[in-house]
Amino acid sequence: MLRSLKPLFLGASLCGAILGQSMAQAAETSVWQNVQKAGVLRCGAAVAAPYVMRDARSGDYSGYFVDLCRDFGEKVLKVKVDFVDTSWDNLVAGLQSGKWDLAMALNQTPERALAVAFTTPATDYQVSLLVNKNNPKFTDIEDNIGALDKPDVTFAVMSGTAQDKAISSVIRNAKIMRLPGMDETRLAVMSKRADVLVDASDTNHLFALANADWAREILPKPALAKQGVAFGVRRDISPADMDVLNIYLKQRRDSGDIDKLVDKASVQANAAK
Q1: Which of 20, 33, 101, 215 could bridge across to 208 with cysteines, CB 3.0–4.6 Å?
Q2: pLDDT digits (tens, 9 = 90+) for 125-153
Q3: How many other β-carbons are positioned within 10 Å of the β-carbon of residue 162?
């Protein structure tokens, strides 16, 4: 009798395993299949140059995350792309509630990872340094903070910011000039009251491009406060769907295409100013 029941137990176990697998697969959302059925990819857009920009007159969007979202939708998914205006406060909540399919330009943080899933980073955010390349103190400009940490060097940083916290944790010998706003820190370096401007890499990159005749940006090694900047997607996205977007981003990053898009967006942002 035990022998006759054994196939029944095996069959029940197999059915249970198949059912469990089916339920797990059903719990994963096929985002791109739904997007293709709808015929449109909706991208949540909170403005922050050079990632996402919006023309006040025309309402048209630009920026390198906008370029990536549009290209992915039109060339990979073969659908039209809509950009949905939102704020940074609502960008994650709108993704969770299904108001858009992708959230653009999210810094990868553990807190956000509790609410959304992140793609592979399109670019990296970190604290960077900007110097006057004609400054005689920097005849051989180093990307090592230790080489800049000298008693006769002054770092200018906006007081109380993440940049202030990051630079304060590594500077031992140089002076730190803490000022109330970014305009004041930039003017301090331009007027040569300070030697090094400390800011986020994206905004320092914009400033360096706008002042290419004298400014040079330095990405210190080891990196300061480095985070990936990625697309946010729903946490229940299927691994297969996540692979589609990750492979797309990796190919564009490895080819240097994203660097070119960043430079294009930075020029546009400076022109708008």
Answers
A1: 215
A2: 899 999 999 999 987 777 888 889 999 99
A3: 12
